[in-house]
Amino acid sequence: MANLKAIRVRLSSVKSTRQITSAMKMVAAAKLRRSQDAIVQLRPFAAKLEEILTGLNNALRDAETENIYAARKQTSGKVLIVIVTSNKGLCGAFNANVVREARRIMAEKYPEQAKRGDLWFVTVGKKGNDLLKRLKCNILEEHSDLWSDLTYENTAILADRLITLYLSKEYDTIEIVYNQFKNAAVQKLTAEQFLPVTVTENDTDNESADYIYEPDQVSIVRELIPKSLRIQFYKALLDSFAAEHGARMTAMHQATDNATELIRDLTLQYNKARQAAITNQLLEVVSGAEALNG
Amino acid sequence: MKIEIITPDSKVYSGDIQSVTVPGRKGSFQVLKDHAPIISTLDAGTVTLADEQGTVQHFEITGGLIEVKKNRIILLADAVRQS
After folding, report:
1. Predicted ipTM beyond 0.85
2. Which of A25, A84, A192, A237 is the most exposed place for a label (fewest CB within 10 A)?
3. Residues contacting A244, CB < 8 A, separation 6+
4. CB < 8 Å from B in window 201-240 of A
5. How many domains does chain A have?
6. Prior bond of B23 cis (ω within 30°)
7. Strand, helix or coil at B78?
């Protein structure tokens, strides 16, 4: 028969754990709502920018200007992967998924670079950084402090840094691996090519032809491409931020449920043990009295 | 004519206006009703707009882009400080 006291101690510890997980769930839910709003705010901006840029793509193709952001021939053979994870744990497989995807890309897409040691990582988020460090991957920079103050200006600095790394021909390809926010329960693991830019063809009739352009189409495109890259990067970070809270909310919900189940089982066990003890004592009293009478 | 001033972080202003003056790359210019369609990049500077009642408002932007089309103005600013 299980020890009464042992069960009681275990029960109270599970109860306080449940209190913590359910509190964390509430906090994650509140943060999720706020970070979701941020994405919604960004959407019209990104959509409009995209629209203007695709309208101008023709100008880019016609003009004899060289698109410095497009794929180029002479190569340094180096690849940079940006890993977006969270600073805090307790959010299920959120961070492990990103790292696993990164290693898959490493093995399938860039096996030679990985062998040569020409595959480098930039990490955003402590968890991913720690995991990669343990795997002995080449980490170029860590930008985990970005999460404490996630604004467009701050992310733009890092995006510009990545663009510079590409333009200075130090790296051929830059990819971003992050969790895209689908809804509170679902995160979509996404690997996106950041640079070189893949230019979307615009086959529809160019109705933007009657616009006045200032200063001119080519200069506008030149200015818009880095801008849209910055927005793309910002969006990836916002997505990951919201996805993190979604993942944590689900994980903590699960944990709370498990704790509730455990408490039910333990309570049952405790009551059974208590009853058995009482029966035992009664038996002793009765048989003692019986012995005296006899 | 309607205007929307949007930054990546938020929507700064949206509503009906009489006129708006923006710091275009090739010099500051003003947009009034029935302006020809235009797309222009913007320098850092002040955006001045007058709403329906003629109240004037100023916004400091660090750069951006403006599109004017059929009395709808969309101003994408990198960052905005209201002054």
Report:
1. no
2. A192
3. A86, A91, A94, A179
4. 208, 210-215, 219-220, 223-224, 227, 231, 234
5. 1
6. no
7. coil
- What's the CATH code of the domain at A186? 3.40.1380.10
User: Chain B residue closest to A208 (CA)?
Assistant: B37
Where do the domains of chain B lie, and which CATH numbers do they carry?
A: 2-82 (2.60.15.10)
**Rounded Cα gap, residues A28 and A242, in angstroms:** 10
Interface check A151 vs B, CB under 8 A: yes
Find out whether the peptide bond into A226 is cis, omega within 30 degrees of 0: no
For the cut 90, the answer to whether the pLDDT of residue A65 exceeds it is no
Question: What's the half-sphere exposure (Cβ side, CA atoms, 13 Å) at A27?
Answer: 11
Does the residue A203 lie in any domain? no
| pLDDT band at A151; cut points 50, 70, 90 | confident
Q: Inter-axis angle of helices A94-108 and A217-293, to 10 degrees?
A: 130
Report strand pairing: A173-183 vs A79-84.
Answer: parallel
Domain assignment of residue A135, given as a range:
67-198+214-287
Using a CB-CB cut-off of 8 Å, the residues of chain B touching A214 are 24-26, 38-41
Tell me: pLDDT of A46 over 90: no
